[in-house]
Each structure stands twice: as C-alpha cells, then as structure tokens.
Amino acid sequence: MSELPSTVVDGPSAQELKWVRFLSRLLTVATFPLIWLGGLVTTYDAGMAVPDWPGTYGYNLFAYPWQTWLFGPFDLLIEHGHRLLASLVGLIAIGLVVAAYRTQKSGTIRVLAVSCLVAVILQGVLGGARVLLDARTVAMIHGCFGPAFFALCVATAVHCSGIGSRSEVGVWGRWFVRIAVATALASYLQLTIGAQLRHILPWASPRFFLTMVHLHLTFAGIVLLLAISLAASGLRQPNTRLRVPAIGLVGIVFLQIALGLGTWVANYALPWEDLTPWLSAYVIHAKGYWESLIVTMHMATGSLIIAMAVMLSTRGWLLGSKAAMRE
Amino acid sequence: MQFLGYDRKTRWLPLRPVDWTKGLGCCLVGWLVVLLSGCGGQAEFESNGTFRLRLEAETETDQQAGAEAVQELLAEWFGTPDQPRWPELGKSEAENEKPLLDPQRLVSAAGRQYSDRDDNHFGLYREHCNNCHGLTGNGRGPTAMFLSPYPRDFRPGWFKYKSTKRSAKPTKEDLLALIRHGIPGTSMPSFAVVEENDLEALVEYVIYLSVRGEVERELLYEAAHDPELLEGVHGRISDDSSDSVVRVIEVRSTLEAKASEIFRTVTSQWSDANESVVQVTVPEWFDDQAKVAAAVERGRVIFQGSIAACASCHGKTGAGNGLVRDYDEWTKDGTVRAGIEPTDRVALKKYLAAGGLKPVPISPRDLRSGIYRGGGKPEDLYRRIVQGIDGTPMPAVAMKPDNPQGLSEEEVWDLVAYVSAMPAEAKMDLAENQAEDLKAPTAVGALTSTVERQP
Fold first, then answer.
1. Using CB atoms, which residue from B30, B116, B184 is nearest to A283?
2. Which end of chain A has fewer beta carbons closer than 10 Å to its terminal beta carbon, N or C?
C-alpha cells in the first residue's frame, strides 16, 4: 500500500485552465440532458419522427420553423429537440478544442478535447445512420455510444479542473482507482446489456431476452458490490473529492436498482398475485407519464453511474500519479 | 510516455501496463459480443411448429413438406410482416356488406415504425404489441417467457374475454376495449393514450394475424390428414421431373381450393361475431341492497353446490384454492395432444425446440382479490358464468331449459351477486382477523359501493 502522498503544486495555472475548465464543464453539463432527451426519444419510439438527416423535413436543422417544432407532434418535438441540443454540444466541443489549442501546452488536454470533438461527430453520424438506415441495431449502438461520450466529457472536465496540480492531498492506496475503473467498465457493460433489452429486435427470441435479463441482473449485483467496495475504500480517503462522490455513488446505484424494478413494473407489471397482491391490480399505461419517466430515468441514471465511476477513476488516477511523480 | 497521468517510472496505474492492455482487450471483446449478440435475423412469419408437432404425433409422419407448402401459400396470400396482404378471395355475404378489414389500416399497423409530420403513426404493431405477442402473433415475443399469463397466441383464433358466445370470435369492440383498457392482473397494458384510429388499426391487424394463423392451422391439418395432398407435396420436394411439375400444379390448386374454403369460413366467423353477442340485462334488484344481500346468500349456496360446482376449482370461499390439474389450450397443442407429458422435462425439449413456451399449470382465479381480467361489471361476470372462458378449463354452467338440472337465469344472477361480494367479504374477514373491535363494513354495503365503482 502506498504512503499518503504529500501536497503537490504543479501543472498549468488556474488562469491557464480557465477556459478549458469552463468549456469542458459546460460540455459535460449539456451532455447529460442530451442523454435524457435521447432516452425519451427511445421511450416514445420517436427515433423515426424525422425521416431525413442532417436536415429536418428538408429544412436546415437550425432553420426548421420553431412553431411547427414546438407546437407540432410530440415525437417531432423531442426528436428535433434532441438534434438541436446535440448540435449545441457539438459547438461547445469545437470551442473546447479551440480553447485547448490556444491556451494549453499540455498534450493531454489537447488530445482529450479533440477526442471529445471526434466522439461527438461520430455520435452524430451514428444518429444520422440510425435514421437513414432505419436500423434498430444502429439505434442501440448510438444509445450505447452516448454514455461513453458522456464519460469522456467527464474525464476531460476532471483533467481540465487542475486536480492534483495544486496543493491537495493524494490517494490513499492504489486499490481505490482500480475499483473505480472496474466499476466504470462493469457499469458500462451493464448499460450495453440494458440497451439490448431496450432496443430488442422484433424477431428476437424469448431465450435471447431471458439471457439478457439474467445478465443484466447479474451485472447489477456486480456493479453494486463494486460500488460498495469503492465506497468502503473511499471512506479511508483523506480527499473529500474522492470520499464524498464514492459514497454518493452507492446511493445512486441503489436508486438505479429501484428504478430498474420500476422499469420492469412499468413495462411488464407484476402479475403474481400471491407475491405482490398490492401491485397485481395495477394496469400499465403504455407511454403514460410516470411509466415513461421511470424508464427514461433508469436509462439516464445508468449513464450517471458510469460518469461518476469515470470521474472517481480519473480524479484518483491524477491525484495518485502526480503525487507519485512528485515523490 | 505521459498520458492521462501515467508515468512509466512510477507506473501509477490501476493495473500494470501489460495487464491493463489485456484487461481492456478482454473488456472490449466482451462488450462487442454483448453489443452484437442481438443483431441479425429478419422480419418473417414463423411456421406453427407446435401444431406441426401435434400433427406428426397424430399421423406418425414427418410434416415438413406440408409445412413448407403451406408456408409458401400463406406468404403469397398474406404477404410478410413488412408488407401484409389481405387475400382477395370470394367474400361472404357479411363481408360484402361491411368489409372485415381495411387494407390501408393493415399497412399502417404493420412494418417498420415511424411517424410523419402530421403525427400519423406507422408500424403500430411493432411499437405496441410485438415485444410480447411476437411478429407472427404467436404469443412468443421476446419478453413472453417472463410474463404470467403468457401473451395471447392469436393463431388458433381463441379469445378469452369477449361479449360473444364461448366458441365465437370476439367483436371488434371487444378487442378494442381490451386494448384501450388493458387487462388488470396481467402484463397487458392500457393503450388509452393511443389515437382511436390507431387502436382500430391494431384491432384489424390482430384479426389479420389471427385469420392467417387459423388458416395455417387448418391447412396444416388438412395437408396432414389428406394422403393425396401429402403425397403430392412430397413428390414436389423429392422429384424434379416434368411429370412431378404437373403434379405440383394439381396439388397446389387443391391446396388453394382448400385454403380458400378455410379462409372464407374463418372470415365469416369474424364478420358474424356481432350476431353471437350474448345479450345481458342486469336485473333491477341489483340496486336494492336488501335484495342483493339475499341473493348473495343464495349465490353462496349455488357456488358451493354440485350443479355449478364452482367451489371444486375456485375453492369453498372463492380463493382459487380448489383442485385443478390442467393446462390452458394454447400449450396443449404441442404437449398433451402431441403425446408429450408437460411434466416430462426430457420429452418437453422437443416441444420447446418447436417454439413452445414452458407449460404452466392453469390456476383458478382468486375471486376474492377483486381483480377481474375480463371485466368486473355484473354483465361481464354473467357472461363468464354462462359461457365459460374459451381456451381454459372454465366451463359454461349448465342452464335451464336446455338442461333441466341446470341453473335458472335467476340463480345465475344470484351467483353473480355472490361473486361480486367476494372481495368485500375477503376484506371483512381480514379486518376481523386483524382487530375484533374494528367495525368492518358489511358485505352488502361494500358490494353496493364495489358495483358502483366498476367502470
């Protein structure tokens, strides 16, 4: 086990990081609602509400009449809104690249900024391919790549925050970072399995669905165990920037499990009267407000778990490695 | 190398570099396997494998050739899940007056999912029904294994909850009501938010799948039991000589003639469904508490008596704890009727491989729960009692004057009153058990409020 690293003062100054820090945070903050909106598009099966891409019904994306957008069909509202917000995220990513190249000498921040831009372009192309090919499988890949992009934004924001480069205590023990990385990977795999259930192909067999549900439940257990281990390790961390989110992550995983159960009930009910007499009379309202909210929230919270695990990994990694370098 | 805080000298990484690469590689492969595992396949109607299993057991001959010929004919007549067609054959009288289906609605219900700028939705079946009922309407959608009861298989043309006679088809209004309100106590949702026109399109698509499935079943049956047809089909598969081509054309025309006959019979049953509606008039005394109380007591005796024999399955108090060792009709095709015992796990593999879902013993309803899948209004309960429930062991009660020993009309209404009062009785029993000093509402008072609350 490593010793507690001493305080470190190193790396770019706060003034130098000002713009990249602001833009990377803005990028992260804008991406989360984008994921929500994307989830809502899937929940309402609105992915094909606009048949063309990159335009909208023949209009330039930004020139589509706002009255028709805001007061037209709900499916069009969320699909076109998803595209507009995605464009905004893309513009912020461009800004981040410009800021990184103008203010940073560090290769890492430049690489991360460019990666964000490439990723958002790729995600946009995937979204376009989903529409032009009308392929559910591409929709699923698009849905899986979104949280990966979100995680990349978080990693970039952490890196641009200057963590570890100023007077700050490091990481106590290397296992914290290892568990955090494992949590991020396991929760991402878990999200991919969930995407298989959400974007199930019409001709998929019941056996395939059964396998995926069992895998999803298994990975829910694995992610929970990892999150608890991370929190246990986090409790020993002297740095509150690791301790508090690590404990918070356990709460979010529990929330996610509750949302997962809610998603099941909202989709398939619980008709076993002997086991759940209080729920057996419940009639699902397909595409009802609460049902849609729970299902979409489950999807978005999955992304949040990945993002938090990536944030903890990156923070721990930076704090530990820079302290170790200093030693 | 210094990237993302990695330093070669201190190796401050979660894992050693070599392990890191390997681990990441494994994760990537695992992720790709999961991501791409659900890909592949295409939208096509499945052949009725479980029914074929039954026919093979009955005839002791392989039915592959017959199944292929039938499948080919059905594809020609009914199209595909992406491009459904409604056969243009001779119409029955009822159909001439009012067409059973609107082909335009089939188009909007089938195929891929999308919507247009005017908020017209297409691919409605895949959007709302497919995950449970399956592309073919065989009740074998991806989620089917998890649901209890299993999603309905439309192909045999049996429907449980309807206003018509037991063996008759439901009316369009019956199906519309089920889709609009859902079925409590099951996974069938309410689609109340869906536009009325779209709901009607869904109803018509369900009828389309049901007719297609029923024609397939009947045709498979005919092909299996008619040696001429079977012989011809075998010849077509095994022999490419010019003689056999002539033979194929003959066989095909016989098959088509048979199919056409079956199609007309099935569609006329759907067209005539309105004529099979069981008309019900709720007695006026159902609003009178004192009379209902007396009817409940009489109904209790009938419920436990030997003529209605309700208690033998539903239990003495209606808690669903009677003795029933049976399965619903949908799982019997490929099991008991194919000579496979549902409890024989080894023999069952053949049935499961043919596309069957694991047979689940049917359980009588707990009438005290207050959850009525087919509707809880007095007229709904009346119809369940006098007609039974199609596709299940729930029989129609024997009635006078057809059966002199059966129940009279009044006795059936007494039974309805008692069944309606059961949830209130159950609550009362529970309250009594929990606290003796708690004032529980009377069964009759609660019944009245229950009846008033029914949608």
1. B184
2. N
pLDDT over threshold 70, residue B453:
no
Cα(A212)–Cα(A163) distance, integer angstroms? 39
Distance of alpha carbon A83 from alpha carbon A80, whole angstroms: 5
To the nearest 10°, report the CA torsion of B320, B324, B325, B330.
-70
Question: ipTM, 2 decimals?
Answer: 0.89
Identity at A196, one-letter amino acid code: Q
CB–CB of B182 and A283 under 8 A? yes
CA B223, CA B69: separation in Å to the nearest integer? 9
Confidence (pLDDT) at B15? 47
Residue B211's Cβ-side half-sphere holds a number of Cα atoms within 13 Å equal to 27
**Helix, strand or coil for residue A2?**
coil
- Residues B17-31 have pLDDT tens digits of 445 667 677 777 777
| pLDDT score of B30 | 74
> Is B41 in CB contact (< 8 Å) with chain A?
yes
Q: Which residue of B has its CA nearest to A204?
A: B142
pLDDT in tens, B413-422: 999 999 999 9
B contact test, residue of A284, A285, A318 with most B CBs within 10 A: A284
pLDDT band at B439 (very low <50, low <70, confident <90, very high): low
A91 touches chain B (CB under 8 A): no
Find the closest chain B residue to A178 by CA distance: B14
Residue A186 CA to residue A304 CA, distance in Å, equals 13
Q: Considering only CB atoms, which chain A residues are within 8 Å of B130?
A: 202
Rounded to the nearest angstrom, the minimum Cα separation between B7 and chain A is 7
A85-99, A122-136, B358-372: range with lowest mean pLDDT:
B358-372
A285 burial (CB, 10 Å; 0-12 / 13-18 / 19+) is: middle
What residues have CB less than 8 Å from A101, skipping those under 6 apart? A110, A113
Interface check for B1 against chain A (CB to CB < 8 A): the answer is: no
pTM for the whole structure:
0.87
User: CB under 8 Å to B10, separation ≥6 — which residues?
Assistant: A321, A324, A325, A327
Write out the H or E segment, with its range, that includes residue B121: strand B121-122
**Per-residue b or e along A17-40, where b marks 16 or more CB atoms closer than 10 Å to that residue's CB:** bebbbebbbbbbebbbebbbbbbb
- What is the reported pLDDT for B227? 67
B137 sits in which H/E element? none
Distance from CA of B147 to the nearest CA of A (A): 7
Q: Which of A161, A273, A279, A326 best tests the B interface by mutation, with the highest count of B CBs <10 A?
A: A273
> Using a CB-CB distance cutoff of 8 angstroms, which residues of chain B are in contact with residue A70?
none
- Rounded mean pLDDT of B115-143? 94
| Residue carrying structure tokens 């119809």 | B383
Q: What is the pLDDT of residues B147-192, one digit of tens each?
A: 988 999 999 999 999 999 999 999 999 999 999 999 998 999 999 9
- Residue B3 pLDDT level (bands cut at 50, 70, 90): very low
Rounded Cα gap, residues B427 and B441, in angstroms: 9
**Average pLDDT of the residues in B369-398:** 92
Q: Is the pLDDT of residue A53 over 80?
A: yes
> What pLDDT is stored for residue A169 in this prediction?
67
Q: DSSP per residue over A94-142, as a string? A: HHHHHHHHHH---HHHHHHHHHHHHHHHHHHHHHHHHHHHT-HHHHHHH
Residue contact A203–B44, C-beta within 8 A: yes
For the cut 80, the answer to whether the pLDDT of residue A13 exceeds it is no
